[in-house]
Fold this sequence. Notes:
This protein is about 30% helix and about 25% strand. The chain is α+β, with helices and mostly antiparallel strands. The protein has one domain (about 5-60): CATH 3.30.1390.20. A 3-stranded antiparallel β-sheet has the order 2-1-3, with no helix packed on it. One of its GO terms (cellular component) is cytosolic large ribosomal subunit. Belongs to the universal ribosomal protein uL30 family. It comes from Pseudothermotoga hypogea. One of its GO terms (biological process) is translation.
Amino acid sequence: xxxxxxxxxxSPIGYKYDQRATLKALGLKKLHDRxxxxxxxxxxxxxxxxxxxxxxxxxxxxx
Length: 63
């Protein structure tokens, strides 16, 4: 399955509670935290909700 890297690049301070909760559910706590997630519709929907706070990169699977 394809994977993506999500990095928190902007502080969620001052944004709505549901956006902060979405970041917490993604596993992003501090600025510049990076997590690797599977590229599923659920994760992509969460990223779309906080797209102004995060940076997303595709991971190439070279095995």
